[in-house]
Design brief:
By secondary structure, the protein is of the alpha+beta class. It contains 9 helices and 15 strands. A 6-stranded mixed β-sheet has the order 3-4-2-1-15-14, with helices on one face. Strands 5-8-9-10-13 form a 5-stranded mixed β-sheet. The protein has a two-stranded antiparallel sheet with strand order 6-7.
Length: 332
Amino acid sequence: MRIATYNIEWFNNLFDDNGLLIADGSWSGRWDVTRAQQTDALGAVFTAMDADAVMIIEAPDSSRKRDGTLALVEFARYFGLRTTAAIVGFQNDTQQEIALLYDPAVMQAVHDPQGDDDCPPFDNKFRMDVNVDAAPDIIRWSKPPLEIAVTTPNGPLRLIGVHAKSKAPHGARNAAAATRLSIENRRKQLAQCIWLRKRVEAHLAAGDDLIVLGDFNDGPGLDEYEKLFGRSGVEIVLGEGNGMQLFDPHARMALGRRLGAMPVTARFKRKGEPYLQALLDYIMVSPGLRAKDPRWQIWHPFDHPLCYANADLREALLLASDHFPVVLDIAL
């Protein structure tokens, strides 16, 4: 089975209010890319991946006026994909949903949020003292994780799609404000990951096969503020110490290396400056799934030999999004 995660920059801008694609010459949400260019590029990437399920980060909006599942089903129909079923979880106000697009002939999937007093549902709130002032702060997800119960021919599987809080100091007017916002955002991002880790631990304790995948906006050694807190959100979700841990080979590589080449999943354009690359997207698996000899790939157009060798696919990956798909092949 092939399972992927893919953050698609402003996917929502490619659809009208009826969920139909706007594949014309008008500008998309991507810099200097038209809607037609991005739409065709995404069709090429999804066709080449041929995944059984894709956890889409920044999926089309679901609200009173728009239906993200309808848009994704239309996208699959337009390009003749076999992933003809879609699920959007808790809706949010950002026009960037978390959704699963999957092949209903291979698996059955339902939105199945969990929660208790210690670890509430992700559309709720979590109390934690992030400011170290002895007063619990209220933590919320702007994009609540998507919890999916999957049925495969060989048994059940749990998926949790994640889009953790960005640590970027948006809105800062000077260096001091940028520092303050960066630290505040990191605290909130770490709190979200602690909340998520509680859910992970519950599934591991129950013996569930679990995959946690998506954009964590974080990673080992990603910025200097990590030194203030001693760890990244990715490390928290993976698990620390002697407890049961999730595994992602790209995270493991980054954790074991502070200098030298590292895998990357995103490539951001900066006006007048070189591209900024980062490892932000992960597919973490539970111990039972790791034992099934899974294989991970990052479809980076310059780092993945087959993607680079295919000129059309290489160009499509660059046009489709500022992130690249992470793909997991596993015997399920």
